[in-house]
Design a protein that fits this description.
The complex is a heterohexamer, with 3 copies of chain A and 3 copies of chain D. Chain A is of the alpha+beta class. In chain A, about 20% of the residues lie in helices and about 40% in strands. Chain D is mainly alpha-helical. Chain D has helices spanning about 15-45, 50-75, 120-140, 150-170, 205-225, 240-260, 265-295, 300-315, 320-340, 340-345, 355-370, 380, 395-425, 435-440, 440-445; strands at about 100, 120, 460-465. In chain D, helix 2 (about 50-75) packs parallel to helix 4 (about 150-170) and helix 4 runs antiparallel to helix 13 (about 395-425). The chains are: A alpha+beta, D mainly alpha. Chains in contact: A-B, A-C, A-D, A-E, A-F, B-C, B-D, B-E, B-F, C-D, C-E, C-F, D-E, D-F, E-F. At the D-E interface, helix 1, helix 2, strand 2, helix 3 and helix 6 of D face helix 1, helix 6, helix 7, helix 8 and helix 9 of E. The structure holds adenosine-5'-diphosphate (3 copies). Chains D, E, F: One of its GO terms (cellular component) is plasma membrane.
Chain lengths: ~110, ~110, ~110, ~475, ~475, ~475
Amino acid sequence: MKLITAIIKPHQLDEVKEALEAFGVAGMTISEASGYGRQRGHSEVYRGAEYTVDFVPKVRLEVLVDDVDASDVIEVILKAAQTGRIGDGKIWAVPVDDVVRVRTGERGADAL
Amino acid sequence: MKLITAIIKPHQLDEVKEALEAFGVAGMTISEASGYGRQRGHSEVYRGAEYTVDFVPKVRLEVLVDDVDASDVIEVILKAAQTGRIGDGKIWAVPVDDVVRVRTGERGADAL
Amino acid sequence: MKLITAIIKPHQLDEVKEALEAFGVAGMTISEASGYGRQRGHSEVYRGAEYTVDFVPKVRLEVLVDDVDASDVIEVILKAAQTGRIGDGKIWAVPVDDVVRVRTGERGADAL
Amino acid sequence: MSATTFTAADAPFVDTGNTAWVLAAAALVLFMTPGLALFYGGMVRTKSVLNMMMMSFIAMGTVGTVWVLWGYSETFGPDAGGGLVGNPFTHFGLSGVLDQIYGYVPANAATGTAASGGIPGAAFVAFQVVFAIIAVALVSGAIADRAKFTTWTVFTVVWATLVYFPAAHWVFAFSGYAAETGGWIANKAQGLLFGGAGAYDFAGGTAIHINAGAAGLALALVLGKRIGFKKDPMRPHNLTLVMIGAGILWFGWFGFNAGSALGAGTQAAGVWVNTLGATCTAMLGWLVVEKFRDGHATSLGAASGVVAGLVAITPACATVSPIGALIVGLAAGVGCAYAVGLKFRFGFDDSLDVVGVHLVGGLIGTILIGFLATKGSPTGTAGLAVNEGLFYGGGASQLWAQLEGALSVMVFSFVVTYLIGLVLHKTMGFRVSAEDETQGVDLAQHAETAYDLMPLGGRIGASAHTTPSATKATETTGANA
Amino acid sequence: MSATTFTAADAPFVDTGNTAWVLAAAALVLFMTPGLALFYGGMVRTKSVLNMMMMSFIAMGTVGTVWVLWGYSETFGPDAGGGLVGNPFTHFGLSGVLDQIYGYVPANAATGTAASGGIPGAAFVAFQVVFAIIAVALVSGAIADRAKFTTWTVFTVVWATLVYFPAAHWVFAFSGYAAETGGWIANKAQGLLFGGAGAYDFAGGTAIHINAGAAGLALALVLGKRIGFKKDPMRPHNLTLVMIGAGILWFGWFGFNAGSALGAGTQAAGVWVNTLGATCTAMLGWLVVEKFRDGHATSLGAASGVVAGLVAITPACATVSPIGALIVGLAAGVGCAYAVGLKFRFGFDDSLDVVGVHLVGGLIGTILIGFLATKGSPTGTAGLAVNEGLFYGGGASQLWAQLEGALSVMVFSFVVTYLIGLVLHKTMGFRVSAEDETQGVDLAQHAETAYDLMPLGGRIGASAHTTPSATKATETTGANA
Amino acid sequence: MSATTFTAADAPFVDTGNTAWVLAAAALVLFMTPGLALFYGGMVRTKSVLNMMMMSFIAMGTVGTVWVLWGYSETFGPDAGGGLVGNPFTHFGLSGVLDQIYGYVPANAATGTAASGGIPGAAFVAFQVVFAIIAVALVSGAIADRAKFTTWTVFTVVWATLVYFPAAHWVFAFSGYAAETGGWIANKAQGLLFGGAGAYDFAGGTAIHINAGAAGLALALVLGKRIGFKKDPMRPHNLTLVMIGAGILWFGWFGFNAGSALGAGTQAAGVWVNTLGATCTAMLGWLVVEKFRDGHATSLGAASGVVAGLVAITPACATVSPIGALIVGLAAGVGCAYAVGLKFRFGFDDSLDVVGVHLVGGLIGTILIGFLATKGSPTGTAGLAVNEGLFYGGGASQLWAQLEGALSVMVFSFVVTYLIGLVLHKTMGFRVSAEDETQGVDLAQHAETAYDLMPLGGRIGASAHTTPSATKATETTGANA
Ligand SMILES: Nc1ncnc2c1ncn2[C@@H]1O[C@H](COP(=O)(O)OP(=O)(O)O)[C@@H](O)[C@H]1O
Ligand SMILES: Nc1ncnc2c1ncn2[C@@H]1O[C@H](COP(=O)(O)OP(=O)(O)O)[C@@H](O)[C@H]1O
Ligand SMILES: Nc1ncnc2c1ncn2[C@@H]1O[C@H](COP(=O)(O)OP(=O)(O)O)[C@@H](O)[C@H]1O
């Protein structure tokens, strides 16, 4: 099994979610993150003092998938998340030893 | 070494934490997450307009463990996190190349 | 490729970021986390009732790097994050199958 | 400069200065209830702040409406017998009130004093309704996080009618002010229990605070403890709200107390000063207790001390001296700082300390009058009679009267409220399900969440169906615990 | 006790009681605009709360300044002809106003009534400016999340000058109060449309609420819908702010309505009571609709009901009885609860329901006067003439007058505002870029974010350049969408 | 209508209208300090908001208490010599004050003017104590994020006694109002420095704002810079709080300024209008500076401009015309927008700009009187004498008097405060440890955190020990940095 992690722009989340659902992925977990990279942050000014916020808000998405689906799922996310502008994010895959569904104790592919 | 990640219901965190402590796990890291899966979100109504919140609040728990402890730790979390109701979450294990304790620079099992 | 994850003290983030930049790392992703370990939390008192907060605020840092850079990057983070006091955190490395840059679809080292 | 003719046979007239102050004071007291909503709302957990605030707001809606219909008449209409309750039908819908003038004092040729103007009947109606509203709202603090909103709404109407209006009639209906005969505590209490004088309660230590405190205790017992009481951390989710709330309450309370003079003269001004002094020492008292007992003076302690001081000085503000006010405040600050621990000792979940602050604070203030009443008080310096207290050589008679007033309201309120609560609990149900409580009453009872502060706005992953739903909103939260 | 000589030939004098109330009321109404800023600010998403609040604050700055310069004179200066507008130059810079006394009633030997004091000219100036400010601020709710701040700033000046001051002249400039001849609606409306009496609008149902509501609709049409309207979740980001705002509005509104009596007497007191009653039933009405339609009574509903009730009772507060006020409130609560759905049906993005609450609420209140006006009202019980409404046997004449007043302000406001908006949109641009809108107007227009609540303070990963920037701040947000 | 007998030998009497306004104004000013707590609290980082608010709240507690004990007497008791300070023992505990009437003007048969009523002594006590409170609270802005709470508490008492009460005596104790002889600035200043007239300071530009500003500078120097000053981002954690605070301050300031007329007449009304006008142009001025200098008009700028305008008009509100007020405001808005940068240039960490806003704003307002004082002002139009300023042909004498007043308070305050601060710093310690500062003063000094907004309430992983701790709370934060 694989864990696909994607760092995406928050506004693309809805599209990614829908694309994954359409593909047949049944579940996912997201969290808030802040990214640093080519895309620059922004400046704020308070009483004449300027602050630069270097990090940009991102969404971190995790999907566990069967080995066979891994590259397809990456492709699905890639398409849905792409805007073509700097800061679109990254996707990566990590090998997973085992997955368990807490409710039932099922393991492996059954747990997805 | 392994990294055990668990997505659990926020209300089970205390039990999981205590079970892990009892088992002898010395440390862990948690963060807030939102989950999507069989468990449904909820609706809110504002001035007659209805909003559906698809994601459900979850806690994301990470524990680094020795290879030998991995399956036991999964078992411990599984038991403590289980309520038997939809949305109990997932646990997975990923192989880890190396762990370092920042304070001392210790590596591997010593770093846990 | 490797995914380096570091749990560090929030106040060390700036130093770590600068050290990584100096080393030549072009991007990273951070998120808020709470840690449990040797470092103790704190107590709060409300109308005579005492609450113990067991978890301590941490920053979770993720950097994707080439295999060859992995140990150097760990070293860089280690140095910048170290204060020598309990709670400095952990760094670990996980093998990554593949990385994709969402904007361009580039893969592997090019995607970093 | 104001100027008019004066004839001995002048008809009752309105004093614009007195009226200006009473109208302003009424607005100030009205503002206290949203202030209370914030004070209470900040103290609960994020998941129930809206419900907490709604309990105050709905009390404004129901009690205000009921007041116009029968509440004013039940409180200040002609006494229906025994000083126990006014006739709710006499002024139903405020009929026959708007063109009245209350408090006019005719000229007295003998003493050579001029006539002094009164206030319009409607100004009195305005000033009194806001008292009724906040008395009801105060009770809600005892049942935070777990009450069914519909049942609470019904409760506000029933409790106002069966408990508050009668108690307010007892304490605030002075014979000859609005109606010829009024309530038994305000007017010579005929020595029901201990004999002697009428009790002093200038602005409602008994009718409002002891009353709400006893009612809170009763409801806390009826509804039972919150899930996780004494075990889970239930710390205030937003102390800045608590501080704003305390600030608004303090501000509004000058209307509450100094407005109770029903005019803008020497008495009102002295009451203003006493109200400030007691609040200051109460805050200091509470913080000193915390500093020595817990090691830190907290902001929740400061806010709580402020409220405790205001509660305690409410009955006493007109009959103690400025130094007496400092003492009343200090006693309340210290006393209530300890009293909020009672619920843990005795195991009743009075969630936001209505008992510890309002019942105990109200008792402290009401009873201390028996010791500290003096002619050097606002009432005395305004030239009115004051029956002095024990410390000023006035003997114990006033103390007995105070105890009588305080205890009778407390017992009456506790018993009747407990019965009302029980009936509602058995019929409508007064408590949400365990699952709703765990998930949060805001979502369960109001289908709302208080905050959505994510940087980019709109909770991630939510979607809208903005066509107003024709059907009932269905919560799809099935297994969300 | 107040005492003075009286001579029949007494010069106009100031009544300190009336003045005290008007000054307090003016302060209360001033406070409403920050309250509105919170009410509106809490309803938008996190990313635009500051911009929302700023639209109210800047209106305070510009309208207050303009009022001193020419606004007062344009509104209350001598009528420039036809009751349409005052002369903006007569009292430019408030010249010749500060030493005036308005509202003084000389003694009447025939009826034996004494002289009654007036209020200083400056008190009237103070009371009226805060009305102008809030009228302008109200409009901003229609264009939340997407307006260019500079253009809005210019709009406030232009709209006040071309729309509000004239409309306020029509409705509030009573002949003989500040100037000899005033506006056409306030004074006998000469039967322009339907013939008959002058319209009753005690505190600004037409000039403020119908006016702002119609203007809001016009601007919403000019600017167009927000990106994601009807699709994205745009739920309130902080309902505690909405509740604080509603509380402040309610509090301040007693100044608004009861202060409009310009004195502290029987009429003011009755208005106070009516204002409370209507608000209570409006809240209840809105919540009942929600409970039955959507399944839950919400806090946003309570806050909205409060405002709807206050809006509707504004014109009516002096001419209906307390029972009438309950009815006006109920009608507004129910009516507006449904009216806020209109924007989804007709597809105009009046973001915070200025139309649904202020236009509709204002219409309900203004028109119901035609049915409910009665001598049992605050005005009637104060001994002043009231032309009774349809339900009280007064015939339909007053109803026609009400319709005439309401509709003429509505049409005038909509048309002129639409033109102003269009001109500004074509010249300066009234809407931010799509990218700025998505990212949030706060950052784009004000270079600020409202909240930074991370536990350790200071957004993680931010750095400061605390030397005041000599050059324009450059936003480096290139591709941050 | 008010009516009474009048005899030439009438005893001093209370005017209810004046009293109503003074009581309302006192409540308004009281409300300013919680408002200030929000204004300041919103500007600091999340980790120190409670401490920031507590510094204001505790000042209410201590100063209010001390005022009743000796503060009033030290300020308004009979002058102890040289116009420098009142006798603190004469009215200790407010003895002999509550039955007094101040400000009564007897009838004058010669001019034919009637007697005009005064206000109760307690009303004056009430109005003045809230000034003392806020003056002390203002200082705290200079030492945000790093002060020891206990030391600050002691400081409030010492500073009030050694600095504020004397300065207030100088400026506010008019001979013959409360005591026979008062302070040297209020009464003809005997030309100590430049000779000539007494300085005009209607509502406390010198005694409050210059005083607090200079004291803030002194304390900022004693405590030193915050860790990370000029380097770390220390942006406001909650700008909605700042905006609420600014709104409350603005609202309350009408009590502050117009209440300083100590009556409700022509002067008070004119002051009200001037207070509004100056605030409006100050906001505009600040925002225009920002727009041109930084590229964006910010909400913090709007809030800051509001306060700067209010500060500057405080001394001037009674002696300038409405146009003059617009100018004072504009000067303050622009001037302070630049002045807040001084701390970066000179490297003192006056964290929340007490110097840039209150000292500089106070100086601007106080000095501009020398140019703009005119008979067309509220004081002049009320028929009282005004020594006109330079621009109105009055020569420079008033300007010198203004400079004398402003500078003497500034120097006195800075020197004495610096000494007080130093002594406290050397003895008790005035600054928390570096570790506590990094971790946050809220947790370190108050064992609290302001917000806990996690969706499910209760910080994840916290547990409760609800038995009130008998022992001191131990912080277990060992190495938590
Ligand atoms: N080496 C990296 N490791 C982890 N996350 C990264 C890395 N590089 C970039 N990211 C994440 O990807 C996001 C987008 O990267 P960025 O360089 O801004 O744009 P792009 O990928 O389009 O060139 C960053 O905000 C960050 O969250
Ligand atoms: N494929 C997946 N990848 C990552 N996380 C998942 C996946 N499926 C489910 N989850 C997480 O597990 C949680 C519980 O899943 P859900 O399907 O609701 O219940 P259950 O596991 O009991 O069937 C989800 O809220 C989500 O956070
Ligand atoms: N086994 C573990 N798995 C995951 N995270 C851990 C583990 N042990 C510690 N941590 C993280 O590292 C942080 C520091 O650990 P701690 O034991 O407090 O100090 P130190 O590493 O200096 O001995 C913890 O707060 C937690 O976030």
